[in-house]
Amino acid sequence: MQLNLKSLFWNGIFVLVLLSICWLIYASGKRIDYNWNWERVVPYIATNAESSINAPEDGEIVLAANNQLVLENLSGDVIVELGNYSSLNVYEGDLIFEGDTLASIEEWRMGPILHGVITTVKISAWSLVFALVLGLFIGLMRISSNPALKKLSIVYIELIRGTPLLVQIFIVYFFIGTVLDLERFTAGVISLSVFTSAYVAEIVRSGIQSIPKGQMEAARSLGMNYPKAMMYVILPQAFKQTLPPLAGQFINLIKDSSLVSVISITDLTKAGREVVSGSFAPFEVWFTVAALYLILTSGLSWAIQALEKKLSASD
Predict the structure, then answer these.
(1) Which of 135, 198, 259, 287 pairs as cysteine with 160 (C-beta 3.0–4.6 A)?
(2) Which residues form the ABC transmembrane type-1 domain (predicted)?
(3) Residue 307: closest CA among 267, 228, 250
(4) How far apart are CA 172 and CA 182, in angstroms?
(5) 84: closest CA among 116, 100, 107?
């Protein structure tokens, strides 16, 4: 009973803190005489507003054999069938010029913010895969007995970790990207992958070195060579040890992806800036962007926690 009362008390404190934060945000808006207009943000997330169906080229509206209106070009070929649209702006016999509105249709469409979320997910997913592979190789080089490989990995890690990600993005896009003719998306993925891989390499190194040396000796005594012992004995154990810090690094990767907006990649952050200029609701937009980043990072955190529990249950 006493334990339940104590738990209830601290849960009440937690709720009180959250309510206090919400009140402070509201009071701050009132203090600067700010009017909250959340309805302005919704169309930029998803909307079912009418969209126009425009003529791709010049032609004429004619009645087809199935008693449906179609747009024929000057050669007599059907280029747009209008039978599927309930709201038509043209009639039989109308002469149509390129760009004229033929019909209107209501359908749910993603707004720029959701498009930005998709771009963020894509660039983060590609960067995560490449960073994991590259970081694994750099981490193995870091513990190699070959002095050249070991020193190269140290130089790589110190160079990447010792320079800001923003500067690296500029170098990759404006210098390497110009030489190799890279697209913005590719340059962003390379920058994030290289930056994250340096941290992944150190996590991999620490994970491998945390495994007792007797494990490697036992594997070698069973006739395994070094690569097989590393792949089948050491790395699976090290993966379990490094999963929590890897999760933190991958969450940082999603947040760091916001920096690619400086090279005109329309990710979630850049989409937010564009929406602010069109909606005149800066606070609402940035709170929405922050919430979407939180959903992405929380989803990844939950997935890794589930994987961690599954791996621990298999021990």
Answers:
(1) 198
(2) 117-304
(3) 250
(4) 9
(5) 107
Banded model confidence at residue 155, pLDDT cuts 50, 70, 90: very high
Cβ distance 226 to 220 under 8 Å?
yes
Looking at the DSSP bridge assignments, the partners of residue 88 are 103
Chain position carrying tokens 């016999």 = 93
Handedness of CA 53, 54, 57, 59 (dihedral sign): positive
CA separation, residue 108 to residues 45, 80, 101 (Å): 11, 22, 19
State how far the Cα of 208 lies from the Cα of 205, in Å rounded to an integer: 5
- Edge-first strand listing for the sheet containing 50-54: 50-54, 101-106, 87-88
> Which residue is associated with the tokens 């000057």?
74
Partners of 106 in beta bridges: 50
Q: What is the pTM of this model?
A: 0.80
Token pair listed for 213: 């040396």
Whole-number Å distance between alpha carbons of 112 and 118: 10
Q: What is the mean pLDDT of residues 33-61?
A: 82
pLDDT, tens digit (0-9, with 9 covering 90-100), for 173-210: 999 988 988 899 999 999 999 999 999 999 999 888 88
What are the residues whose beta carbons fall under 8 Å from the beta carbon of 75, sequence distance 6 or more? Answer: none
